[in-house]
Design brief:
Length: about 450
């Protein structure tokens, strides 16, 4: 009985202001287990019922299944007041509740027999349900021959075979070991997500908050003494519910908090915990390839003269009379600045690289300045720092100290030298070696006018 229309949210079971009292032993009055409980299970949804031990979850399920009557209030199933056992539901129990003297097949057929289904149809439907739970080949086995997980598979088959509108599960996985329950829970969820589940809705009682968030569309929280509905939490996650998504964790945390604090009102307003954003690395932590502008433009000019505008790296090194190891930082710099691209040992120029290699010196400085400000955060940062100073200047030590935090002194000095070389060529800043000070160039542009690091 697949729900053909997942947006069909008709009310399948309605619990209206139900209370339940049990007589106390020795005739000393009565004991209220459920007080004024109202709840609706709609077509197409999975509802989890959570509450402390003794809050009346199993009692509520039994009332909805028509196994015991409410003391007050009423239950509607498919719009009709419930009288006696509810044939629209089937139940899976924690304890499996199999009859040991019957085979798997006979256990599965039992409920159909009670409903007067003919032998042939019973057989056919039972085989289909046994197949669905993966017990193909175990039809004539007895419960004692089966593992706990397999026994519970029979429990599911016995419920599935009835093709109930709503499947009730009362802690169906809690008697199984962790791996087995994980497996079975995953299979049930797969069946549900694949829309091949043999009922329109599921109502599951569980003590396991993660299980509720994993399986359900909403979790109804029951309070105790006497049992009452505290509120509900909508599990607004795409299916299948991804356990490692941040919102999954927020939902689990929220439910855990309300479950451990009976006085908190359950509003269902789950605040998504902000994920700690990894701090952006300091621009001074990103190593610049040690290449002078002269080397970079020399390289680009050599490549642009090649017929295809591409060259093979070892040949290039030879022509530049450089060891490949010395060529690599120059290539890295050309790639970093967006002038060249490397693939499979070949290097080719980008359009900007072509332009840079062939244009006038003045325009090449403009191009270089734009590329450096777009792709090299540390140079942007230096310009920004200098701009913030009214004097437009700063001691070199200030910047060296920033590099020092990330590199040994010698390397910090090399980083500094490279940055100075690039910034000077781009006419962004000047370095006075005798004073050991950096100065903002008069032509240095407003940073807002140049896009920040593009990618
Ligand atoms: N037939 C009964 N006669 C008397 N008291 C009962 C009866 N059935 C249940 N109770 C009592 O009602 C209360 C709720 O029981 P119920 O089994 O519904 O709780 P529960 O929420 O399912 O608990 P658990 O999480 O432990 O399964 C308990 O205090 C229980 O002792
Ligand atoms: Mg119970």
């Amino acid at each position: 009985m697949i729900n053909p229309n997942p947006t069909d949210l008709t009310d399948l079971i309605t619990v209206a202001q139900v209370s339940k009292h049990f007589p106390l032993p020795d005739g000393k009055g009565e004991f209220t287990v459920l007080s004024n409980v109202s709840l609706v299970v709609k077509a197409g949804e999975v509802v989890a019922l959570l509450g402390r031990s003794g809050s009346g979850k199993s009692t509520l399920l039994r009332i909805m299944a028509g196994l015991i009557p409410p003391s007050q209030g009423q239950v509607l199933s498919n719009g009709r007041p419930l009288r006696g056992a509810n044939n629209d539901v089937a139940m899976v129990f924690q304890s499996f509740a199999l009859l040991p003297w019957l085979t798997v097949q006979e256990n599965v057929e039992l409920g159909l027999e009670a409903r007067g289904v003919k032998r042939e149809e019973r057989r056919r439907r039972a085989l289909k349900a046994i197949d669905l739970v993966g017990l193909d080949g175990f039809e004539s086995a007895y419960p004692k021959e089966l593992s706990g997980g397999m026994k519970q598979r029979v429990g599911f088959a016995r419920a599935f075979v009835l093709e109930p509108q709503v499947l009730f599960m009362d802690e169906p996985f809690s008697a199984l070991d962790v791996l087995t329950s994980e497996n079975l829970r995953g299979e049930i969820d797969d069946l549900w997500n694949a829309k091949t589940f043999p009922s329109k809705s599921i109502l599951i009682v569980t003590h396991n908050i993660e299980e509720a968030v994993f399986l359900a569309d909403r979790a109804v929280i029951l309070g105790a003494n006497p049992g009452h509905i505290r509120g509900e939490v909508v599990i607004d996650l795409p299916r299948p519910h991804e356990r490692n998504s941040p919102h999954f964790a927020s939902l689990v945390d929220y439910i855990y908090t309300v479950m451990t604090n009976p006085e908190i009102e359950v509003t269902g307003q789950v605040s998504v915990q902000p994920q700690p954003q990894p701090a952006a690395p300091s621009p001074y932590a990103i190593a610049l390839p040690h290449a002078r502008v002269g080397g970079i433009s020399g390289l680009l000019e050599l490549i642009v003269d090649q017929p295809e505008g591409t060259d093979d790296i070892p040949r290039l090194a030879e022509r530049l009379q450089l060891a490949v190891d010395d060529l690599l930082p120059i290539l890295d710099a050309a790639v970093l600045l967006g002038f060249a691209a490397v693939s499979q040992g070949d290097v080719c120029l980008t359009d900007i690289g072509q332009d840079f290699a062939t244009t006038t010196i003045l325009r090449s400085k403009d191009l270089f300045r734009k590329q450096v400000l777009t792709h090299v955060p540390v140079i942007r940062s230096i310009v920004q720092t200098l701009r913030e100073k009214r004097s437009g200047s700063m001691r070199a030590d200030f910047f060296l100290d920033l590099w020092d935090e990330h590199f040994p002194r010698e390397e910090a000095e090399r980083q500094f030298a490279t940055a100075i070389d690039w910034g000077r060529y781009a006419e962004l800043f000047e370095y006075d070696a005798s004073e050991e000070r950096l100065y903002l160039s008069e032509t240095s542009p407003d940073l807002e006018s140049v896009a920040s690091v593009a990618d």
